[in-house]
Design goal:
Number of strands: 47
Radius of gyration: 24 Å
Oligomer: single chain
Distance between the termini: 73 Å
Largest sheet: 23 strands, mixed
Shape: globular
Strand content: 35-45%
Number of helices: 4
Helix content: under 10%
Amino acid sequence: MNYRILILFLVICSNWTCLIGAGKIPISVTQFGAIPDDTINDAKALRQAVAYCKAHKGITLFFPPGIYNYKDEKAVKIEKEAISGVYGEDVQGHLFHPKASYVKALDFTDCEDLTIKADGATLLLEGWYEVISLTRTKHITIEGLSIQYKRSPNTVGKIIHSTDSCFDIAFDPQKYYYLDSIVTGRIHFFDHLRQRLYGGFCKSKELISPDRIRLYSTMKPTLGDYCILRHGGHYRPAILIKESEDTQLKNIKIFSQPGMGVVGHLSKDIVLNNLQVVPEPGNVISTNTDATHFTSCSGEIHILNCKFKGQGDDCTNIHNYYYTMYPQSDDKIEIRIENADLHAQSLDYPLLGDTMIVVNKNNLEEQGKYIVQQVDTFSADWKVFIKLDRSIKLNCIDDYYMTNYSRTPKVRIFNNTVNSHLARAFLIKSRDVVISGNSITGSTLTAIQLGAELGWRESMPVENVLIENNYICNCGYASPQEASAIMLRSETSHPSPYINRNIIIRNNIFDDEGDTEIWLKNAENIQVMDNWTKSSDYVKQSNCKNVVIK
């Protein structure tokens, strides 16, 4: 005990000067009993530190460098059951829905004017968590924290044997424990020669020895490649920003997460600066799904100087939703998000004064704008009712969707590095967008995709977009029928009007394997100029107007 007190005193004294002069009340987690590198569970102490921050505004919370252990028995139980097969193959169906029980590690709900300084600090988690929860927060800055799991939420094994009907992978049972007779998880692969991920499938899986799994599939992956089993699919994010304003994440590392890295929902003004969502050393997979994902946000979203690698889906997806409308009266309707993945697992709703747009379901053509005058939310019943400034007069309302025009943030994506991941690097559905100075290699699908996706109920078309000075190499190899570098389209069931507008694509380097590097669809007023490419005919057009290619 005396030793721990001595260490606590020395840590406080050595780091206190870092906090003096910051203009906020300096508090160290060591004051609550969280001592780095002592291997003792710090969950209780860290929760006490968080509670103090919630009770006081204007705090700077300091984490001295080192490893902080975090273990909660409920979270451990969730992890063990997911991996050992208690939920069967449908782990996502059990764990990823609004009523599913989960654990928040650091819950900063309702905090204001808080800075967390954690350079050199690692939160080592045992169990599955929503690691940092920022709900209804204002003016929050988090700097320097690393998020790492004791057992990564996936299993990685080397392919050692293959036949026409199955293949075997060898894994380390000391590293990847909890595996039982029922083997769960979506699969994909890592090409050990090309150093990049690729997709795959299997009919079934079984544990045939303590260190070997057999996967039944007609697919024949290359011997020596790695097979990854993502046990969670979708789950809670590492960092959730919900109904918050002015959030800055700086110099944060997320090495793994059973769900997404950072999710923002119904929030205003988010900055990610030098966020790293990358595999821990010696691994090939980071987050099981998107590195970052933003829904129904406003203000500005900045993604600057970040590194993304090994995530099981997009680097970022920015969008709002298409609502289905259920009229209650001439000017009052119920709106629902149907057939969509709600990554924040939270109710989506407009605010008073928001502008709502009604669009045709078939071609997404705008039919009219309306102003929200009243909002009634019922979270327990998952219902939202809104009153508009005038009645909606349509012959058949079932033929239309509604979307929130006010939830289209400005987007700035500058100087990021993307390497070896599944799906798209930047998937953007917003207005006033700049994507500049990024290096994108090894995206299995199109590197940059713009435009609405009806299948996911993700709105909306894009306007006023500048894509310049990017390097895009070896992308789109999993879907050669589409563009490898940039795809501008909106997913519609019928021919669409020119719903994407005012796009400039210039001074980019395309060093890809496919012939079509840019595909333009359902758009007008586009300039493509001064790009470097190996292909002489690198632009494909469909249903476009006023396109200039130089």
